[in-house]
Each structure stands twice: as C-alpha cells, then as structure tokens.
Specification:
Helices cover about 65% and strands about 0% of the residues. It has about 240 residues and is mainly α. It has one domain (about 5-235): Hypothetical protein af1432. A two-stranded antiparallel sheet has the order 1-2. α12 (about 200-205) runs antiparallel to α13. The radius of gyration is 18 Å and the shape is globular.
Length: about 240
C-alpha cells in the first residue's frame, strides 16, 4: 500500500481509518527518526514485543496494536516527549495486564504480574518496568464496584509517578476522545467507566510536577473537555418514546 507523503501531519484517527496499522507504523517510524540508533533499537524492540503479545487482540474494528501505536505517537508528537523509557513504557502499557504469562513464558507462576514486570525490567530496564507497573490495574475486589476501584487505583498510582501520568493521559485520550470510533456496547460502557475520571486527570495534568510544558498541558485539557463532551452525548441522551 502506498502511503501519502503528508502522513506526518495527519490526525491519528484519520491515519487509522484510511491506512490502518501500516499507516500508524509508518507514522511511528517518522516520529522516532530523530533518536539515535540505540534508542530506535529499543523502541523497535518494544514494538516488536507488543505486536507479538497482542497479535490476536482486537479493539472494536481494529488490531489492538493500533491503540498502542497511537498512545506512543501522541506522546511523541503532541506531548513532545523525548524520554525513550516513557515511550517504551507507553508501547508496553497493557502488556503485563493482558499477557503476563506469555511475557514470562512459564505456565506455573505464583505471581504472574510480578514475574512479567521482572521480565520487562530485564529487557528494558527497571524504570520502564516501574512505569508499566504504575499503569497496570490490580486484581479487583469482587465485592466492590469495579469502576470505583479503577478510579481509586488511577489516582493513587499516578500520584507518585509523574511520568506515568503522561502515559495514562495519552491512553485515556485515545479511549475517551476516540470513543466515537468504537462500535457496539463498548461505546456506552467506556463512557460510563471514563467520564468520572475526567476531573481526576485534569487535576493530575495541571500539577506542577507533571513533566510537560504549559502549552502541552493546555492541549491535554482541551482534549479532556472534548472527551467529556463525547461521554455526555453518549450517556445523557433523552429516552426515545416507545
């Protein structure tokens, strides 16, 4: 498939709709051209790993790796992140939560999450593993509301890891602003899950220790406003008469 020369300036969901995974991979390649060869190797290695781990996973109408690519590209392009550990962790952010056993490669593991984080620390460094741990959901208490537990976990884990906030906000933006690109029951369930988190993210983004420029923070706040508008449009629709 021939990709257009203006791919570097296209919105990511437009790339997704028009050019799919191949377009997102090319956009990622363009975004990391400024890194040195060792840094590009680490980024390519992380992308290769998540491509394998999520090879059978899908999000609505697309391969799951598209989501991971958009999270990384958003940090590179819109957030101006040049910290390779953070981009690597962004690519890997769902690996431990979704595929711990495959990461470890052993069917008999007492604590798959801890073992999987150990594998990431070995391959990509302790800091990457720590960032992935901060954005990995814990086991839920079945006696409590899952969404409430999720909100508590997000607030607590991101409180102590400023760079993990950057990863999680990019993930949230892809899920929130991108909710209109989903289909089926996931649209409403995602809106219910994510709408109460908008004020939590606003508070985290505007903190002085969140390592982003003021211009980037304003951009993210605009995106959070857009996500909230879309959640409200989905959840606050008047009931249709019978």
């Amino acid at each position: 498939m021939e990709l257009p020369p203006y791919l570097a300036s296209m919105p990511m969901h437009a790339i997704t709709e028009m050019h799919g995974e191949a377009g997102l991979r090319e956009r990622f390649r363009l975004e990391i051209q400024g890194f040195d060869s060792a840094e590009r190797h680490r980024l390519d290695e992380a992308l290769e790993l998540v491509t394998w781990l999520h090879r059978d996973d899908r999000r609505s109408r697309e391969p799951y790796v598209n989501h991971l690519l958009r999270v990384a590209i958003r940090m590179l392009h819109h957030y101006q992140v040049r910290d390779v550990d953070v981009i690597v962790a962004g690519l890997l952010h769902d690996a431990v939560e979704d595929h711990p056993v495959e990461l470890v490669g052993d069917g008999k593991i007492e604590d798959p999450t801890a073992a999987a984080l150990g594998v990431l620390a070995e391959r990509f460094g302790a800091r990457v593993a720590r960032l992935v741990a901060a954005v990995t959901n814990p086991l839920w208490d079945p006696g409590r509301d899952r969404y409430e537990q999720y909100r508590e976990h997000v607030a607590a884990s991101l409180e102590r890891e400023p760079w993990a906030r950057v990863i999680k906000v990019s993930d949230f933006t892809d899920n929130g602003v991108g909710v209109i690109h989903s289909v089926g029951p996931k649209v409403e369930s995602s809106a219910r899950k994510y709408r109460p988190l908008v004020p939590v993210y606003r508070g985290l983004v505007t903190r002085a220790d969140t390592p982003l420029s003021e211009a980037v923070k304003r951009h993210i706040l605009d995106q959070l406003d857009l996500a909230e508008q879309r959640f409200s449009a989905i959840l606050d629709q008047p009931a249709h008469p019978a």
